[in-house]
Write a structure and sequence with these properties.
The protein is mainly β. It contains 3 helices and 30 strands. The chain has a single domain (2-447), classed as 7 Propeller (Methylamine Dehydrogenase, Chain H), CATH 2.130.10.
Length: 448
């Protein structure tokens, strides 16, 4: 664990020093999560390495919220969730951040949630007032150098207005990564984690059948040394025993898609990408699954056969399935930062290029998002946005459909694509642990 942390930090330093066009936070501009809620079908949220992009008209116009406006910063990729009444939540290393006024004012949750490192959150798909947030903090180091963590699931049943601890504190030997729920069984929860012993990393799945009151532990098979963590990416909407887990490792390492049909008792590999599997999406009926990476493009398969076929050569950095559409994060090499497909991922309509960002989201003076206006001139210059062009309309060709087919030699993946979300996946563990240690030291000093 300790070795992994320092190797990852060294990797980050080397890549940051070599990267051209990296921003002040050391990250190259990239998009890596799309959030679309059935309650607000016109609202699309696009997480990037430089903040959050917001569209309120299904992707025609996009505005920007800076990281500092959302009360976080540095090399992290918070999970964002939108509840039934429009509350936006983000799981950050600084705490659980919440906005209840249309994304203008963000504040960190206090009480038991204050100053906790949050690795993930999820909004229940069949009751979007309910939110589960997963905290996993550094707690101590033994004389032998083993880390211990303080981890807890928190639950809200009122759109994030209040949170309470759900069940007992979790195993201190585990560093937790993801939390998912089963749509067809409100009592079923899945948590993924890693445990490090004598330098060997093991994948762990915790399964609860009683709403988080207790858990049983299951092993997730990782391929050493390249795979370093498991991520629960989806649970079948009709079968609570079927879950989809992807593996992650070094920035350029291959990923596997694992499926369990018995709630994690056993796993089988159904797909593998040659690069990090940054995109995975399951349709609402559970019948089709999409997977992709910057190196491999978009693949799709029936969940009955798992016979994957390549659909497009888009350099995938995220995938999100909505009613009748598949959204993808990509980069300028693919012709869009955010794209939308209505033919199962075979073609994508570009919905955003970086040049199409209009500017900071308009908010009242005194709100946290309004402070982003002072950061906009610098970001605009870094992204090469021409202010003489009307960014209120989609970028050139954004209304057309782009055919993406296989390219000779495969997809050419630039350092910009790989150093963004691929690096974030690898460094999430070390940044959380080291950041938590720094916060603990500050707490210890303040208590003296």
């Amino acid at each position: 664990m300790s070795a992994r942390s320092w190797v990852a930090v060294a990797t980050l330093a080397a890549l940051t020093a070599a990267a051209q066009g990296a921003r002040a936070n050391g990250r190259i501009p990239a998009a890596n999560q799309i959030v679309v809620s059935p309650d607000f079908p016109e609202t699309v949220l696009l997480r990037t390495t430089f903040g959050l992009l917001v569209s309120r008209d299904a992707g025609k116009k996009w505005d920007w919220i800076c990281e500092s406006g959302m009360q976080y910063g540095g090399a992290q990729d918070p999970s964002f969730g939108l509840t039934k009444n429009g509350t936006l939540l983000a799981s950050t290393f600084e705490g659980l951040t919440v906005s209840r006024d249309g994304f203008c004012t963000f504040a960190r949750e206090g009480g038991e949630l204050a100053r906790r490192v949050f690795s993930d959150l999820t909004v229940r798909p069949n009751d979007r007032r309910q939110v589960l947030a997963l905290a996993s903090d550094y707690a101590s180091t033994s004389d032998a150098g083993a880390f211990a963590f303080a981890s807890q699931v928190f639950r809200s049943g009122d759109d994030g207005s209040t949170f309470t601890a759900l069940g007992p504190a979790l195993d201190t030997s585990l560093l937790f990564e993801t939390v998912e729920v089963a749509e067809s069984d409100p009592q079923r929860l899945y948590l993924s984690a890693t445990r490090t012993s004598a330098g060997v990393v093991s994948g762990v799945l915790l399964v609860s059948r009683n709403g988080g009151a207790s858990y049983v532990e299951r092993a997730v098979p990782l391929l050493a040394p390249q795979e370093r963590a498991p991520f629960v990416s989806a649970v079948d909407p009709k079968n609570p025993d079927r879950l989809y887990v992807r593996t992650a490792g070094q920035p350029d390492a291959a990923s596997r898609l694992l499926v369990s049909d018995d709630a994690g008792d056993t796993f089988r590999e159904v797909f593998r990408t040659s690069g990090p599997m940054l995109g995975l999406a399951l349709t609402a009926d559970g019948a089709t699954i999409y997977a992709g990476s910057t190196k491999d493009g978009v693949y799709a398969a029936s969940t009955q056969t798992f016979a994957f076929e390549k659909r497009a050569a888009v350099q995938v950095q995220c995938l999100t399935a909505t009613e009748g559409a598949l959204w993808a994060c990509s980069n300028e090499a693919s012709g869009f930062v955010a794209g939308r497909s209505t033919d199962g991922g075979r073609t994508f309509t570009p919905m955003l290029r970086l040049s199409g960002i209009r500017g900071p989201l308009a908010c009242p003076v005194g709100t946290t998002t309004q402070t982003c206006e002072s950061e906009w001139p610098r970001l605009r210059q870094e992204l090469g946005i021409d202010t003489t062009v009307d960014a209120g309309t989609p970028a050139k060709d954004a209304g057309s459909t782009t055919q993406e087919g296989p390219r000779a030699g495969g997809s050419s993946c630039s350092s910009a694509a790989d150093a963004g979300p691929g690096l974030a996946v690898t460094l999430g563990v070390c940044v959380a642990a080291l950041g938590a240690r720094a916060r603990k030291r500050r707490r210890d000093r303040s208590a003296q």
